[in-house]
Amino acid sequence: MLVDGFGREVSGVRVSLTDRCNFDCVYCHNEGLGDTRGPMDPQDGEMSTDDVVRFLEVAAEFDVRKVKFTGGEPMLRDDLEEIIRRTPDSMETSLTTNGTFLPGRAEGLVEAGLDRVNVSQDALDPKAFREVTKSGAYDDVIEGVLAAVDAGLTPVKLNMVVFEATAGYVPEMVEHVAENDGLQLQLIEYMPELAGRPEWAVDIERVHGWLEEQADRVEFRDMHDRRRYWIDGGMVEVVDPVGNEDFCANCHRVRVTHEGYLKGCLNRNDDLRTMGEMTRGEIREAFREVVHNRVPYYGEYMVRDGDGDWVVNEEYIGA
Q: How confident is residue 24, by pLDDT bands cut at 50, 70 and 90?
């Protein structure tokens, strides 16, 4: 297993299969690339099935144990089942999706070897959902979540980005997962450094405080300094990376863009490394280089100045 200069093993990869999406969520940062979504038809720049599988086979050589397929909306790829089926058996496979295509495909994904699924769902009210996603596909998402549960992809994690427009919906989402077996809730801190609109950010510690008041039990996870709250039988986890040095110090993932570039950090695009024409030798070289150059974003690439504000560490400018 490859280890970077800060002692972090790379045990997982996130692979973006496309930047296309049938939603237009107001907070989208497209795996840190910015809002680059193009036409809905497949584009020449997307990695082919063979490209994706070849990369995963090389990653498995370095004892990478987990892969999460993302996008855009990864289920716009007609070859998703084939990619999952051809993923090395040593890897746990998971998927982040908006859920609209899960009805009719969830069982096939399980048969192909999918282990887990995260479904983006920011509200339980169709009108509120439409305001955030710019989509009227609320019923399709609900049906998709049920299809994933029925197919055995439990627990299905619902991803909810917490910002000004959604913070008020947290209590009903917490109640929703408590009342429905097979569901868990993942509250994701809004990241203005990627999505812009800093005025939309909310104090995530207030969310933690409310959850702690409601919780029957709180579980602390060393990884990423995460907290899990068990409320009336439901599980709620908070992903709070903004300014969280522990989160970055425990990051064990490398990312791949839909066009086949490796990147060592979600928040950076100055470290992209092409895998060339995707030969195994080129992938190995690029993978080693990206891991070698990985830097914890908060606490190293970004450091606090004398006023306590986050500023770029000049050591890594142009590196």
A: confident
Domain 12-316 has CATH 3.20.20.70: yes
Burial 58-88, CB ≥16 within 10 A → b, else e: bbbebebbbbbbbbbbbbbbebbbebbbbbb
Helix axes 126-133, 138-150, angle to 10 degrees: 100
Tokens of 241: 């990376």
* Residue 283 region by backbone torsions, left for phi larger than 0, else alpha for psi between -120 and 50, else beta: alpha
Provide the terminal-to-terminal Cα distance of the chain, rounded to the nearest Å: 24
Share of the chain above pLDDT 70, in %: 94
Contact 293, 319 (CB under 8 A): yes
E-strand ranges in 82-178 read 92-97, 116-120, 156-162
Which of helix, strand or coil describes residue 138?
helix
